[in-house]
């Protein structure tokens, strides 16, 4: 297993060995033992799976607040996405910074997103099967988000965001400055 640090503190790209031949491939997508040996000790308790049938679907930026925050181990089974994470931990040296990654069925990369990050992705192909493990259960009351097109964050999405396919929920998240003003969400304490 290869673990690569990202530019954001505590977030990592993970690449497992992939064994392929004329029939296809095999990979061990997750091994607690391998992760523990790499110093990544998480107790994943929930797996999630989404399907996006069109290219241009943008989901996010999502997170769970407070004690319901989740570490996520993300991968794409079919298709490709541009995956974005934003550090929301106020005491972090990378607070308010974002980074984007291409995750796809062909590159087999996984992204480890720690608690205290907002997360979103844009589908680059049709029929994207997107899966992720979480180390905490989903809680509807702790569900939150930040506007994907926030001018303070200035995320460089690889499409004209006016053409993005969005849920009503994702069209109405607060801006980053509004998020900061809420003061009921301080990840520096985690």
UniProtKB/TrEMBL annotation:
The keyword Isomerase applies. The record marks 138 as: Participates in a stacking interaction with the thymidine ring of dTDP-4-oxo-6-deoxyglucose. Keywords: Isomerase. InterPro entries: RmlC-like, RmlC-like_jellyroll, RmlC_Cupin_sf. It comes from the Bacteria. It is an enzyme of class 5 (isomerase). One of its GO terms (molecular function) is dTDP-4-dehydrorhamnose 3,5-epimerase activity. Coiled coil: none annotated. GO terms for biological process: dTDP-rhamnose biosynthetic process; polysaccharide biosynthetic process. The active site is at 62 (proton acceptor), 132 (proton donor). Its EC number is 5.1.3.13. Gene3D superfamilies: Jelly Rolls. Belongs to the dTDP-4-dehydrorhamnose 3,5-epimerase family. Homodimer. This is dTDP-4-dehydrorhamnose 3,5-epimerase.
